[in-house]
Structures are given as C-alpha cells and as structure tokens.
Amino acid sequence: MKLNENYSNLKESYLFSTIAKKVNDFSAAHPDKKIIRLGIGDVTLPLCKAVVNAMKSAVEEMGVQSTFRGYGPEQGYDFLKKAIKNYYAEKNVNLESDEIFISDGAKSDLGNILDLFDKDNTVLVPDPVYPVYVDTNIMAGRKIIYINANEENDFLPSPDESIKADIIYICSPNNPTGAVYTKEGLKKWVDYALKNKAIILFDAAYEAFITDETLPHSIYEIEGAKNCAIEFCSFSKTAGFTGTRCGYTVVPHALGRLNKMWLRRQTTKFNGVPYIVQRGAEAVFSKDGREEIQTNLNYYRENAKIIADTLTGCGIKFFGGKFSPYIWLKCPNNMSSWEFFDYILTNIQVVGTPGEGFGKNGEGFFRLTSFGSRENTIEAMKRFKTLINK
Ligand code: PLP
User: Fold this and answer.
1) pLDDT value at position 40?
2) Which of 21, 298, 343, 387 is 20 to 30 Å from the Cα of 34, by its Cα?
C-alpha cells in the first residue's frame, strides 16, 4: 500500500481555526463583550415557503407505495433539469437536458470534475481564490500557476498570452473579492481558452446576486463558451441550500467527449441527489419560489449596502458588495490583514476574514459578508464607524 503523497503537499488550512482560536480567547477574557461575526460564508435565512412545501409534499409521496421512489437517475430528475433549462433560456442560453447534471452542490463537482483531466495539465487560478480549486489540484499532483487579481485590475485579471494553461478557474461573482466580470471581460477568457485549447471551469455559485442584467450570470452568455467551458452552480447561496445540498453542473455537448465522460463518471461514482431535495430545488424556480428567494436575496443585498455605505462614509476603499454577498475592503493605515483582524476584534468585537487567507494578493485586505442578521450588521457598522472616525 502506498499513500497518495500529494496530500503531504497540502498547506494546513489555518485560516478558520486561527480565527476561531482568536475569537474564543478574546471571548474567554472578555465574557461581557458581544462579538458580531461578519466573516461567515454561510447563509442565515431559512428555506423559503415554496421550497419547504415542495419538500413536504415529496416526503408524503415517499411514504405512499404508489408514489414511492428508490434510486433516481444519477444525473438528476427531468423535472429539475427542465426548470434549470428554462432558467437558462431566459438568459438566451439554450441547453439540452442531458447537458445539465444535478449534484449535491458545487464543491463536490468542482473537485470531482478533475477525474476527467490528465494529471499532466497546467492549472491557472487567480490569487486570491476560493481554496477548493487549489487543494483539489494539489491532491491530484497537478501543476498550479497563479494569476494576480489585485487593485490594479480591480480583482478581475485578464488572460496573459505569455501564460500557458490548460485548465482555468474563473469565479464570478467572486469569492472572496465580490468582483464580477463584464461580458467583455469574460470574452477575453473565452477567446484565450479557444485559442489555447484550454478549458474554463466557471463557478457561478453567486450568480443570483447579480441585478445588473448587462452582467453575465452564466459564461454561456458569451459566444463560443460552450466550446471551452464547464459551468458549476449551486442552490446554496441562491436559496439557502447550504445544509440541504443541491447544485448543478453544465457540460455542453460542444465539449466533445467530456459530456459522455462526465455522465460515465457520475453514473459510476454518484447515486444522485435525494428526490425530496430535487423537488425543493425545483420550487426555487416556481413563481412563489422566485419571489420568496428574491426577498431573502434582497435582505442580504441591503446588509451589503449598509456595509458598503459605512465603508464609503469612513473613506475605506472596497470592492464587491454590489452584486455579491462579499465586501472586500482595503485595510486602513496599511495594516496587514491579521493586524486589522486583531484591531477590530479587540476594539469593537467585530469578526471578519483576513484576506491573506485566500492567497498572497489578499494580504492587506479583509472580507466581510452580508449573510449576518440585519440587527448585527447595523450594530457592527455603528461600532465600525465610531472606531474609524475616532
Ligand atoms: N464555489 C464558491 C466560490 C463558494 O464560495 C462555495 C461555497 O462557499 C462553493 C462553490 C460551494 O458551494 P456548495 O454549497 O454548492 O458546495
């Protein structure tokens, strides 16, 4: 037996454990102080009524002989694929049902898709980045190169012809920076991928936060993208499914063998998402479901606006927040990410995420999220204002 030694090349992820330790230590020393967490990447609002009702009906069906269902299709039920297909059609993207694969969330598929690619591919990831893209490739022993996302390019890097990459990760709206590509910006990547015979792995997990309809929700809104991109999406942030688990991956036929290879991979290694959960996800696209999830998304958007307005008022530069739950701020007075973390924890008991934890270009930046409660967001920003204007 030989171990996969690539695992020893993984960097220990100290980010969230260090945050937890610092917060716990502070809390133990100052039990009277109320700590507000604006670092969380998890949703806090419950599932909407339309989703809950659909799941309740599905549970009832499962308890009746005539409507009981056992194993479903590994790639998802047609009713959900149809709802997703119609959603894309609204953006003038026409998909075939068998190009859509239902998953238990974007994270698993982002990792699993790598089964389809040889180890001998060079991977391009932006820095800072959602760590899953990096770690899944380290586990497979693939070579990773980084492209700088920074203030100069508004955290939206463009392709560089001197870089030769085979697999390219793009996340828009971005975690952690909140930056969103325009159609023109994405087109540069599509053109690069087509020219270099590379594949783009496009993470659209936060697409539902976009309200400016000139911005692309899907990479397939860009001409030629079906020939060079796989898209990953999720109901996690759109509809509060972080604990319920459902997402989808689009592998267009235009990508040649990849569509059939992914089907083969999924039918071999995956047995599908629960029927009950897929009925809940279908309800996200119903008339009531849409209205209800917009109410929830608007709640988070308003929180983001409260944070953004406070930062603007304090003269602190930031990115994101407008079409994303993430606000990526530049630490004032040239503080490092961790100095700023300690500064606001100690002085105003607000917790965020040090940007340095997402890559070297994250140093000097700090991530706040709009997923907290309204009350906590307002209170945290009140404290923030007082501290910065001191
Ligand atoms: N992609 C990005 C950029 C994320 O931030 C997350 C979750 O935080 C995911 C994917 C994973 O989402 P899911 O819950 O669908 O696995």
Assistant:
1) 80
2) 298
